[in-house]
Amino acid sequence: MSAPPVDYYATLEIPSTATQQQIRDAYKKAALKSHPDRVPSDSPERPGRTKKFQQINDAYYTLSDANRRRDYDSARSFHGFGSSYEDDPAEEEIPRPQQSSSSSSSFPWSAFGFGTKNEADAEHASNEQFGSVFEEMLRDEGLAEGEQAHPTGKFWSLVGGLSGGAMGFIVANFPGALAGAVAGNRLGAIRDARGKSVYAVFLQLPQADKGRLLSELAAKVFAHAVGS
């Protein structure tokens, strides 16, 4: 039996008339709020957060692409979710699927989202998608620069304030005097992060530091949303 229908607009807490920018902004907030790494690896919240994070990424994958969104909206509207978003009249018209007499319970809703077949693939796809948006968010905050999203001094200063376990990154990427000033006696495990993007560095951080960095970034993103 096909999976039950999922309202991706409800998942991102946006109306079906949302613009692409609104969809992207909603994804940033939802992904940061529900990211599994905001809780410890052994937390009982982790499985639920992982499932929610994957659904949020499925929603963004579907709605961020005009063609995928149009197909999803057609099916969503036919099966009783309400009106679909308004097409841009300047866009080339793409034929919609023919409506059939099948019910929502028989519609292949799994065709939307990443369409992955197992938990490991779904988690990998979600992390890959989040990574690109994560780097964009850090560029906006001056924590990354360039096409490869290389960490800036501001990023390393933030990482340096997280915990002793992150000090190795400081030592590997700053001149000795500055590294010593930041790290003090808390050297931690020295890891060379030269040439890596901020997301690659994030993935190597200790679990607790990942959570703190996500919380710091979430606070900045939500503050921008309130101030806009």
Task: Summarize this structure as a short list of keywords or feature phrases.
228 residues; mainly alpha
Describe the structure.
There is one protein chain. It contains ten helices and two strands, in the order αααααββααααα. The protein is 54% helix and 2% strand. Helix 2 runs antiparallel to helix 3 and helix 2 packs antiparallel against helix 10 (207-227). A hairpin with a 4-residue loop joins strand 1 and strand 2 (150-151). The longest helix is centred in the middle third of the chain and has 22 residues, at 119-140. A two-stranded antiparallel ribbon has the order 1-2. It has helices spanning 8-12, 20-34, 46-63, 66-78, 119-140, 153-160, 167-173, 176-183, 198-204, 207-227; strands at 144-145, 150-151. With 228 residues, it is mainly alpha-helical.
Number of strands: 2
Instruction: Tell me the helix content.
Output: 40-55%
| N-to-C CA distance | 44 Å
The helix-and-strand class reads: mainly alpha
The overall pLDDT average reads: 74
Q: Give the overall form.
A: globular
SSE order, one letter for each helix or strand: HHHHHEEHHHHH
What low-confidence regions span 5 or more consecutive residues with pLDDT below 50? Answer: 83-109, 174-192
**Biggest β-sheet strands, sense, barrel:** 2 strands, antiparallel
Q: Count the helices. How many?
A: 10
Radius of gyration, taken over Cα atoms and rounded to an integer in Å: 21 Å
Share in β-strands: under 5%
Provide a compact summary of the structure.
By secondary structure, the protein is mostly helical.
